[in-house]
UniProtKB/TrEMBL annotation:
This is ABC transporter permease. It is found in: Cell envelope. It comes from Pandoraea eparura. Keywords: Signal. GO terms for molecular function: ligand-gated monoatomic ion channel activity. Residues 1-22 form the signal peptide.
Length: 245
């Protein structure tokens, strides 16, 4: 019986150690793959700028990427609850978010923009939003930004990015406020809508990590700098945004 107990204990130790090793070898990343060109599904496969960036970072770090799809509003809660190690989904670095998570160094600069129907003559500049129906995605900075800066806007809050654009397209919302790169891409594929030239804000995107995981944050930052240095970053920017800047 004693030998049996020793063998069982040894087997358990080996199993546990292998699990720890596997966990160290895997980076669990949460995303909401409905926001092209950053993350989306094409031909049944998850792709986009963020997706390729994370996969490239994983190679530099020697980690396999394990993806989980979660609605945008649940991404940071997933990191906080340790359901994921990283949230990568075109997330703006904001003071409010920095209170609960860390971010990697910024990896792209964008901003909030206004999308309207091409024949819309009532909204020519940001001030014209007041009194209008504006669609926004739940959990994004657009929601709080409109509350603070355009309190007279009638917000139409939706769960998914594509729903937000569709409401403008079919006339159930007068405008949508979202990240400019995604708005421009949608307008390019749907000539019935356009993006106003004047942006509302300038924002920086970062990958969200738990506050206690400073080692992971530092490791990702080092990997990001390597991708910038070897040209991988510039190539991905050119691929998804049409410029290497």
């Amino acid at each position: 019986m004693k030998l049996r107990h020793i063998l069982f204990t040894m087997a358990l130790a080996i199993t546990c150690s292998s699990k720890v090793f596997a966990a160290d070898d895997v980076l669990r990343v949460a995303t909401d793959a409905t926001f092209p060109p950053f993350e989306y599904v094409e031909n049944g496969k998850r792709t986009g700028f963020d997706v390729e960036m994370i996969e490239a970072l994983g190679k530099v770090m020697g980690k396999k990427i394990e993806w989980t799809d979660i609605d945008f509003k649940g991404l940071i809660p997933a990191v906080l609850s340790k359901r994921a190690d990283v949230a990568a989904s075109a997330i703006y670095i904001t003071d409010e978010r920095l209170k609960v998570v860390n971010f990697t160094h910024p990896y792209y600069t964008g901003g909030l923009a206004i999308l309207v129907k091409t024949d819309n003559t009532a909204i020519k500049e940001p001030a014209d939003l007041n009194g209008k129906k504006v669609s926004v995605q739940v959990g994004t900075k657009s929601v709080q930004f409109l509350k603070d800066s355009y309190p007279k806007v009638e917000r139409v809050e939706v769960e998914k990015n594509d729903q937000m654009f569709e409401l403008v397209k079919i006339g159930r919302a007068d405008a949508a406020v979202t990240g400019k790169p995604a708005a421009l891409l949608y307008a390019k594929a749907n000539p019935v809508v356009k993006v106003l030239d004047k942006t509302l804000t300038v924002e920086r995107y970062g990958f969200a990590v738990r506050k206690g995981d400073t080692e992971l944050t530092n490791e990702m930052n080092k990997a990001l700098e390597k991708l910038r240095a070897d040209g991988t970053y510039a190539a991905l920017v050119a691929k998804y945004f049409g410029t290497s800047k």
